[in-house]
Design a protein that fits this description.
Peptide chain release factor 2 directs the termination of translation in response to the peptide chain termination codons UGA and UAA. By secondary structure, the protein is of the alpha+beta class. It is built from nine helices and eleven strands.
Length: 371
Amino acid sequence: MITIEQLKDVKTRTEALYRYLDIENKKVQVEEEQLRTQAPGFWDDAKKAEAQMKKVKSLQGWIEGYNAVKTLTDELELAFDFYKDELVTEEEVDEAYAKSLQALEELELKNMLRSEADQMDCVLKINSGAGGTESQDWSSMLMRMYMRWAESNGYKLSVANLQEGDEAGIKTVTMNIEGAYAYGYLKGENGVHRLVRVSPYNAQGKRMTSFASVFVTPLVDDSIEVVVEPARLSWDTFRSGGAGGQNVNKVESGVRLRYQYKDPYTGEEEEILIENTETRDQPKNKENAMRQLRSILYDKELQHRMEEQAKVEAGKKKIEWGSQIRSYVFDDRRVKDHRTNYQTSDVNGVMDGKIDGFIKAYLMEFSDSEA
């Protein structure tokens, strides 16, 4: 049975969210933005209209989210009072508390995602490290983990490019994950993921260590200004791999984009290489590859801003991109994040996509330094 202090904590946090989210102002904003959708010729510019509808939906989402939390908090308070009159059981009060707390924590977490990029879809790329079959198998396990996470959270996932391993697993995969705040939730997955296990590919049954790198970038849309210099751009085409037989791809629908990027701040140059085999339509694959390029360029600008912010706030923990972030130790039944020290013994659950604990711990520790 919950205590009166626990009930007061839920009520206080719910009231605080009302202020943090500025619900009254959001209600006014919704009315104003909805009026714009009723203007003559609103749908003449489809992209602009869709962006406006997305804005309205986002505002409504915050209001509906808060209303749901407030309703559950009111029901909890009612259940607590009813228990005094023996109208409900302890179990029913505890159940109402669990529901209200979960909804409250989810909205508090979402409230941490305030930057423009946080709200976007994302591109998630996995590259296997050195170690051949071991690392390639580990990369495929990570791919499945993120697929399960996306599925359980109602996100749309599509594979833009996949290169299978020589014997098992994958060498690399690029996935688009689309849905509200996909980048905000997954940005903390950036870095090197380390696996320690007794290898099924080792005849002596030795404990092996494998590495895979995960890169997460916002998937930008047409509303974001990104400059792509045509002179630095070149294309190759190739046949997409198929199942063979009647399904083999007889045309060069796969595209390979090369972009000679020059860092505007340091002057350093590098080649950005993107392959896309998402569809059998070459123009569509080119369009998808360009979208990924714009996402990468946008992300580079974001990283520069974060580095500048880190210099200004040198006392805060710096977020190291590309560093080893998490260890998955199978025989010790332990998955640990080295940045937050959050860990769990539910290895199977994590590999089935239950990574929300890691996501929350990361946002709780680092959201302020990204603001």
